[in-house]
Amino acid sequence: MSHKKVAILLSGGGSNMVALLDSMTGDHPARASLVMSNDSEAGGLKKAAARGIATAAVDHRPFKGDRATFEAELIKPLIAAEPDIVCLAGFMRVLTADFVTQFQGRMLNIHPSLLPKYKGLHTHARALEAGDAHHGCTVHEVTAALDDGPILGQATVDVLPEDTPDLLAARVLKKEHMLYPAVLRRFAQGDRTPILLS
Ligand code: GAR
Questions:
Q1: 3-state SS, one letter per residue, for the chain
Q2: Are 81 and 54 in contact (CB under 8 A)?
Q3: Among 106, 114, 109, 68, which Cα is nearest to 92's?
Q4: Domains along the sequence of the chain with CATH
Q5: With 80 as the cut, is the pLDDT of residue 1 above it?
Q6: pLDDT tens column, 28-56
Q7: Does the pTM exceed 0.85?
Q8: pLDDT band at 195, cuts 50/70/90?
Q9: CB of residue 43 inside a 6 A radius of ligand 1
Q10: Which of 176, 177, 180, 184 has the most ligand 1 atoms within 8 A of CB, as the residue to mutate?
């Protein structure tokens, strides 16, 4: 059986990336071919390398906000890895429409809110400030608009009276680790039916 190739982009510790890698075994239709970061010091790169996955890094900082030139470098190892699917997993750079278009229909992102609520940053604090009873995470197809695009799955947590942004983030992250692998497996099978977890 030939597996779909998955490239994963991250900026930090990579716990979602680890959940994705751990899921791609046995009869799973996909395997990781590359883990990439915009930060060569990202903890996620070491975890991927320890699991025998090829890694690459393109530091965004020397490009000083010139997204197009940064992305021209970022895309080189990505294209070389010939991914069928690209998963953004805590990748904290905004991508241009030009970049996104090259992976249209095959790039996924996980976002720590119940989209369309709370696009952007500080999602947990914003859910608490709003007094929401429920919060959660979303996996969606990436389109040119930030944290937009067709929703492929959502997982919900109850907001508790004693919650702080950190406590809430930790509970949402556990759900992310269940949701993202479930969506990726389904997506790799060509099924875009949204998954709802509670
Ligand atoms: C996750 O909570 C993910 O949803 C979030 O960053 C965290 C990365 O954690 N992504 C975004 O906020 C993207 N806008 P991880 O590195 O442990 O997977």
A1: CCCEEEEEEECCCCHHHHHHHHHCCCCCCEEEEEEEECCCCCHHHHHHHHCCCCEEECCCHHHCCCHHHHHHHHHHHHHHCCCCEEEECCCCCCCCHHHHHCCCCCEEEEECCCCCCCCCCCHHHHHHHCCCCEEEEEEEECCCCCCCCCEEEEEEEECCCCCCHHHHHHHHHHHHHHHHHHHHHHHHCCCCCCEEEC
A2: yes
A3: 109
A4: 4-190 (3.40.50.170)
A5: no
A6: 999 999 999 999 999 999 999 999 999 99
A7: yes
A8: very high
A9: no
A10: 176
14 pocket-lining for ligand 1 (C-beta < 6 Å): yes
Q: Is 15 annotated as a binding-site member? A: yes
Q: Which atom of ligand 1 is nearest to the CA of 16?
A: 18
Distance from the alpha carbon of residue 157 to the mean position of ligand 1, in angstroms = 16
Tokens at residue 174, please? Answer: 């556990």
CA distances from 178 to 3, 9, 89, 131, 155 (A): 21, 18, 13, 25, 9
C-beta 153 within 6 A of ligand 1: no
Q: Which of 3, 28, 60, 111 is catalytic?
A: 111
Determine if ligand 1 sits within 6 Å of the CB of residue 37. Answer: no
Question: From ligand 1's centre to the CA of 12, what distance in Å?
Answer: 8
Residue 89 Cβ < 6 Å to ligand 1: yes
